[in-house]
C-alpha cells in the first residue's frame, strides 16, 4: 500500500451530490479500488444503512407521503443518521476502518436547508445531537448541472427526485455554499465529465489532501 493510501485508514469520507450526479457510481468504483489497495472499509448509505434506518428511508422516499413537512423530513434524516453513527460508523472508525458514506450531513444542509428553506442553525443544532459533532473528515461533492443530472436519473422518480427543477437548482447552490464555507472538510469535483475522468480527479484530490 502506498503511503498516501495508508492515510485513508480510520478516516470518514462522505460522497455527496445532487440526484443524478453519478456519486453512487463513483462510490462503487472507489470502494472496489480501496479494497484492492488492502484497506479495510465499511460502506454505508443514507438515509438507511441500518435496519431501522432503511425503514425510515422507505418513509422518506415514498412518493405517497406528499404531506411530510420539511422539518419532519429533516428530523427523520437525522434519526436515521443517529442510529447509523452510534451503531456502525463510530465502532468502525474506532477499529481503524475507512468509512465511506453515500450521503451524510451535507445532504441535509443542501436539501432541507438551502433548497428546503430550513434555517441552517436549526439543522446544525439537531446535527450536533444526532452525530455528536462527528462531521466526515471530507465531504466530496460530485458537482453537476441540472441538465446533466436529469439525464442520468432513472425514469422512476422517488419523492425527493420529484421536487422539480427549481428545488434541485437550489440543492446545487447549497452544496456550493457549503464548499465555500467549509473548505477544510468539503470539496467539489466536476462530475460533468466522463466517469473515468471523474474517478481520476477523485484519486488525485485525495492524494493531494492526504500528502499536504
Ligand atoms: P439517494 O437517492 O442518493 O440514495 O438519496 C436519497 C434522497 O434523499 C436524495 O434525493 C437526497 C435525499 N436526502 C436529503 O434530502 N437529505 C438528507 O439528509 C439525505 C441523507 C438525503
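^ Assign residues to that structure.
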Amino acid at each position: 500500500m502506498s503511503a498516501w493510501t495508508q492515510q485513508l485508514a480510520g478516516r470518514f469520507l462522505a460522497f455527496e451530490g445532487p440526484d443524478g450526479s453519478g456519486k453512487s457510481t463513483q462510490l462503487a468504483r472507489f470502494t472496489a479500488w480501496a479494497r484492492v489497495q488492502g484497506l479495510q472499509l465499511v460502506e454505508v448509505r443514507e438515509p438507511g444503512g441500518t435496519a431501522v434506518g432503511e425503514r425510515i428511508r422507505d418513509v422518506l422516499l415514498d412518493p405517497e407521503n406528499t404531506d411530510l413537512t420539511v422539518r419532519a423530513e429533516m428530523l427523520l434524516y437525522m434519526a436515521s443518521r443517529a442510529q447509523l453513527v452510534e451503531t456502525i460508523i463510530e465502532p468502525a472508525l474506532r477499529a481503524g476502518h475507512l468509512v465511506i458514506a453515500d450521503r451524510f450531513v451535507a445532504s441535509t444542509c443542501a436539501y432541507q436547508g438551502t433548497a428546503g428553506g430550513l434555517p441552517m442553525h436549526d439543522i446544525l443544532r439537531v446535527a450536533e445531537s444526532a452525530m455528536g459533532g462527528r462531521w466526515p473528515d471530507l465531504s466530496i461533492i460530485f458537482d453537476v448541472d441540472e441538465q446533466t443530472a436529469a439525464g442520468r436519473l432513472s425514469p422512476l422518480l422517488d419523492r425527493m427526485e420529484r421536487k422539480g427543477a427549481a428545488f434541485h437548482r437550489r440543492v446545487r447552490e447549497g452544496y456550493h455554499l457549503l464548499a465555500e464555507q467549509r473548505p477544510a472538510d468539503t470539496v467539489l469535483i466536476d462530475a460533468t465529465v466522463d466517469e473515468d475522468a471523474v474517478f481520476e480527479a477523485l484519486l488525485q484530490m485525495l492524494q493531494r489532501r492526504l500528502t499536504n
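The domain at 3-211 is CATH 3.40.50.300 (Rossmann fold).
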